[in-house]
Design brief:
It contains 18 helices and 14 strands. With 493 residues, the protein is of the alpha+beta class.
């Protein structure tokens, strides 16, 4: 630690004499440097906490001392027998008035001796902190060799820096805290809330948050697009040496989490195999494989949710602790199979799917309730519902799609493209023909009713319909032709 003002004044070889009362200023102020200057205003060249040494009184003593005190100068030293004998009384009065400690430097004590004493203490402190950082880094590195390296590293870091350390997992839940019980429930909630936007960004990032347990620095762990968690470290009062140790731990923690990827990948492959067995109708095989590792499959009836997007890996990590059902990655899709029976308040596909989609910017669809034996049909339903996904409804249900009827399925880009091609002769000849035909078909093809709605004579309407038949090259007197035309008009509406 750098020398304090009290330690500087107590050095017998310097023989410094404090002139102001002991209650003036703070004797425990750390002094990083001593500077000598005879400028009328040396403050532009001083940093707060430094000691200023002078040999003559300034012209405007009160204003001079006021500037020094306001700038945060720790103390003023007056060298005697250089310009004059003794320290001016006016300088002592001004320092007392402005709360600036004043000490006298005898002629036999050069200013460089004061600067050297302070510099030696600063250098000794820097060496001591560097030595500590090396010892702390070594202890943390040895901790990484223990059976549970991540827990051991975080525990050792908390012990070395004497600050609490917490890990928020990729699922956004608090994974562990070291030392145990060092963070209150309210502080835990604050850490989780502060880590959430960092995880949602899916980019390497840092942040900070102030809690009841003090200030914490937050740092994501893992690669961009596949974050493994957020490390929260008590940061209040950490010096550069401690920051250096923390930086090393961030790398070690990230490495420890990355080492678990092999296990995670094997678990993901197991999920995919179970899913494909279920789709193939091999339910007994799927249950026997899933039971020991993944737990029992959900009870029927079930809903199948299909999700797609760029953050499926992060979403799968999140589902590990937020879904009570079964899920698997299959190609570029994430599939959830969750029970629709039992407690209506329990997590289900209708709740978990949209939550995952919202958190990781995914799109998908959910099937109607289905038996496990009918999973292929449920999967097809979920795919149909996914085509109806929008930013406001990222995971629509097949129940809603079915309730909208067959014609609602025409609202797709493919159907619209076919319809526009089919109706092109009409729109090219007379764009008003499409509205006329739509009104005619909505009137069940009854000319009298349609003519009244259009405000034209029925013979005029017949002529216009005949013109449309000529342009389209089809006879509109039959149901099939009218239904096909009506579907095309609905698709372009």
């Amino acid at each position: 630690m750098p020398a304090t003002l009290a330690q500087l004044l107590a050095r017998p070889e310097l023989d410094l004499t404090l002139l102001t009362d002991p209650g003036v200023g703070d004797p425990e102020t750390l002094v990083p440097w001593a500077h000598s200057s005879e400028l009328p205003d040396p403050t532009p060249f001083l940093s707060p906490g430094q000691v200023l040494l002078i040999t003559k009184a300034p012209d405007e003593i009160d204003a001079y001392v006021a500037r020094l005190a306001e700038h945060g100068v720790a103390a003023l030293g007056f060298g005697t027998e250089v310009v004059r004998a003794g320290t001016p009384d006016a300088l002592l009065e001004a320092c007392t008035r402005h709360g600036l400690p004043l000490f006298e430097v005898p002629y036999r004590t050069p200013f460089i001796a004061i600067a050297r004493f302070i510099a030696d203490r600063v250098a000794a402190d820097a060496y001591a902190r560097s030595t500590w950082a090396l010892r702390a880094s070594r202890a943390i590195s040895l901790a990484a060799l223990r059976p549970d390296p991540l827990a051991a590293v975080l525990t050792e870091l908390a012990r070395q820096i004497e600050r609490p350390v917490a890990l928020i997992g990729a699922d956004g839940a608090l994974d562990r805290v070291s030392p145990s019980g060092a963070v209150s429930a309210a502080s835990r909630e604050a850490l989780v809330a502060a880590a959430d936007p960092l995880l949602r960004s899916r980019r390497r990032a840092a942040g900070s948050v102030v809690t009841e347990a003090g200030a914490f620095a937050l740092q994501t762990l893992g690669a961009a697009g596949c974050l493994r968690g957020v490390l929260a470290i008590g940061s209040e009062g950490l010096d550069p040496a401690a920051q250096q140790v923390v930086t090393g731990v961030v790398a070690l923690a990230g490495l420890a989490l990355e080492q678990s990827r092999a296990t995670d990948a094997a678990r993901a492959r197991l999920r995919t195999s179970v899913w494909r067995a279920l789709i193939a109708g091999e339910r007994a095989l799927a249950e026997s494989v899933a039971e020991p590792v993944l737990g029992p499959l959900p009870e029927a009836p079930v809903r199948v949710t299909v999700l797609a997007g760029t953050a499926l890996t992060a979403a799968a990590d999140w589902l590990e602790s937020h879904s009570d059902g079964f899920f698997a990655r299959d190609g570029q899709e994430l599939v959830l199979v969750e029970s629709d029976a039992g407690d209506p308040s329990a997590p289900s596909a209708t709740a978990t799917g949209p939550a995952a989609a919202s958190r990781f910017d995914l799109r998908g669809g959910t099937s109607a309730p289905s038996a496990l034996a009918d999973l292929p049909t449920a999967l097809a339903q979920a795919e149909v519902a996914r085509q109806r996904a929008t930013p406001k409804a990222p995971v629509p249900s097949f129940d809603d799609v079915a309730a909208a009827g067959m014609l609602a399925l025409l609202q797709t880009p493919d159907a619209r493209a076919v319809a526009q091609t089919a109706l092109a002769p009409l729109t090219a000849a007379d764009p008003a023909l499409t509205d006329l035909l739509r009104t005619w078909l909505d009137s069940d093809g009854v000319y009298d009713i349609a003519a009244r709605r259009l405000g034209i004579h029925r013979h005029t309407l017949r002529a216009r319909v005949a013109e449309a038949e000529r342009l389209l090259g089809r006879d509109l007197s039959g149901f099939a032709a009218r239904a096909d035309l009506y579907a095309a008009l609905r698709a372009t509406a």
